[in-house]
Design brief:
The chain has 3 domains: about 140 residues, no CATH class; about 100 residues, 3-Layer(aba) Sandwich (Rossmann fold), CATH 3.40.50; about 190 residues, no CATH class. The longest helix has about 35 residues. The relative contact order is 0.07. The strands form 4 sheets. It has a 6-stranded mixed β-sheet with strand order 3-4-2-1-5-6, with helices on both faces. A two-stranded antiparallel ribbon has the order 7-8. It has 15 helices and 12 strands. About 50% of the residues lie in helices and about 15% in strands.
Length: about 475
């Protein structure tokens, strides 16, 4: 089956799934009204006109909100947020249309419309989840998968390969890599290197490539334009991994200093009501977390005591807000004298310094649960750049642009870099880019998304050590 036909079928299935769930929500709302109201209610056929207006309005809004456009990388949190917003607006619009056209001949069931609103959000979300599972199953069988070519065999290219490989919902099949220069490399992580950038048009045609991802963040603008020009000859979709400036400075403004023109990079610090909102979320999350997780934390403390001699907690000085040091609290997962001989070093896979219980704690990130106390005290946030040790900060700030800007906000228990696979012994440069992007683009929804993804990652991530 051709990719175009498969995508058309996926789109029609999604449209029909939404329409079915919207109609089902309306019918269940009617049945719920029958159960909760004791007065005489008209038969369901009486409300078929309302049902048609309701479903037609919602489907139209979904279409204009681009919920039927191909968005393989959209997260579930973003999709639920979009469904919630569009259903809410759609209910209001359909309410107004129904009131205008049926004001003299139809009962106006306000409570039923409330039921419709709640049920539509739940059922459409459920329907889209089932649709996504079906689509992933079909794509795993070869339906509608996009053949992707990655330009660049470096760290960024390999990171993109990891994303494409471990996210089947993206619908990507990596055809191969293209090297910047022909250095005789045959494979990268088991994926073939098909040639150099000079061979791009031929490679795209020979391997049936649908999409090209240019993973050369240090390339000059002229080099990027040349690569895009080579790809455009074959009419493929092109994506470019952004360079350092693009990802760190999302917004700039033009101003003046007493007549002297100035370019102002976006002020990255959270202020005012945003800061208050984030602190409120931290207090609520830390309080609820400590209450509900306290039995588990007591069990962990007991296991640590039984497993090896030493204290239950391990306190370590890290750098936090405004570059001020603070003491992070963690469950001890290594020997008491772990750094006696080596001094401060990064943890590594199969680290011999770990205890038996420590291996389990680190695998599921349970050693970090006591940091909820740091959050409650205001030293950390639930979400933010991960705090580093002072000795490492002194090293990193010497060669990473704007590294210290990440300390203009509170450190977090989890962060945007971590949920995107940049944890442990990974590139500090790339991690800093993600941290600064998070600070510049903060929103409450983004924090919720990161927390949600962090919880799911506990059961999926294999590189926690």
């Amino acid at each position: 089956m051709t990719k175009r036909r498969a995508r058309l079928i996926f789109g029609i299935l999604l449209f029909l799934t939404d329409a079915t769930m919207m109609g089902l929500a309306f019918y269940l709302a009617y049945r719920l009204r029958l159960l909760t109201e004791y007065k005489q209610i008209f038969p369901f056929s009486y409300y078929l006109g309302m049902l048609f207006v309701q479903v037609a309005t919602l489907l139209t809004l979904f279409f204009f909100a681009k919920l039927y456009h191909r968005q393989p990388a959209i997260s579930r949190v973003d999709e639920i947020y979009a469904i919630f917003g569009n259903v809410s607006v759609g209910i209001i619009i359909s309410f107004a249309v129904i009131a205008f056209f049926y004001r003299y001949e139809l009962e106006y069931p306000r409570l039923m419309m409330l039921y419709v609103w709640m049920l539509t959000i739940m059922l459409v979300t459920l329907g889209r989840l089932c649709n996504q599972l079906l689509r992933r199953g079909l794509q795993s069988q070869g339906w509608g998968r996009n053949r992707v070519l990655i330009v660049g065999t470096g760290e960024v290219g390999q990171m993109i390969l990891g994303k494409a490989t471990h996210s089947p919902g993206l619908g990507y099949e990596v055809a191969g890599f293209v090297a910047r220069e022909d250095k005789g490399v045959q494979q990268v992580q088991g994926i073939p290197v098909l040639g150099s950038t000079a061979d791009l048009p031929t490679i795209i045609e020979d391997y049936g490539v649908d999409e090209v991802i240019i993973a050369l963040p240090d390339a000059s603008h002229q080099e990027i334009l040349t690569l895009i020009s080579l790809c455009e000859r074959e009419r493929v979709s092109i994506k470019v991994f952004p360079d350092v400036f693009q990802i760190m400075a999302q917004e700039i403004t033009i101003g003046d200093l007493n007549g002297l023109p100035m370019v102002t990079v976006q002020d990255i610090a959270l202020r005012g009501w945003k800061l208050t909102l984030k602190r409120g979320m931290d207090l609520l999350g830390a309080t609820v977390g400590l209450i509900f997780l306290s039995p588990l934390m007591m069990l962990v403390a007991l296991l640590i005591k039984m497993d090896s001699p030493g204290s239950v907690f391990y306190c370590q000085e890290r750098m936090g807000l405004d570059a001020k040091p603070f003491w992070t609290i963690k469950f001890r997962s290594m020997r008491e004298d772990a750094e006696k001989e080596t001094g401060p070093v990064w943890a590594k896979p199969n680290d011999p310094r770990r205890t038996r219980v420590g291996r389990f704690l680190r695998r599921f990130s349970m050693d970090e649960l006591p940091q909820l106390i740091n959050v409650l005290l205001g030293e950390m946030s639930l979400v933010g750049p991960r705090p580093e040790r002072l000795i490492f900060v002194q090293q990193f700030q010497q060669f990473i642009p704007r590294y210290m800007d990440r300390h203009r906000e509170k450190a977090g228990m989890t962060g945007w870099a971590q949920v995107n696979g940049l944890r442990g012994d990974t590139s500090i440069v790339e991690r800093t880019k993600y941290d600064l992007w998070y600070i510049e683009n903060w929103s409450l929804l983004l924090d919720i998304k990161i927390i949600f993804r962090s919880i799911l990652a506990v059961f999926r991530v294999k590189d926690a050590y």
